[in-house]
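Page 42, continued from yesterday. The earlier attempt failed because a stray header line got pasted into the input along with the sequence. Redoing it now with the clean sequence only.
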Amino acid sequence: DDHAAIEATVRDYVDGWYAGDAERMERALHPDLAKRSMRTLPNGSEYLDTASASNMVAYTTMGFSKGKLPEGYVNQVTILETTEKMAMAKSIAPEFIDYIHLAKTAEGWKIVNVLWEPVEQ
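This time it went through. Structure tokens are written below.
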């Protein structure tokens, strides 16, 4: 079922991030992933920060957010829209909100684009 496969892919991405599980992260991502966030420099100018699939796998391996998932917290995953070959999902985690575009490939559902921002604390 596509719905379950899409959710599993998003969970590999977000839960793999918090577990420091690079294998799960890599499994979720299309090799041409573009993960982006609008950032602001101290002088007030803005820029679009971009990470690739290889960046995300490396950051996960380094454990950037490993152990930061509060006990009992379940990352929220909502599938917003699906077609035969595309899907859009939203993930809310302790630190980040992600809007996620997925594509159905021969290897299954893969994340191709992510636009994210920090959760306001």
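Notes: The helical segments are 2-19, 22-28, 53-61.
Reminder to self: strip header lines before submitting.
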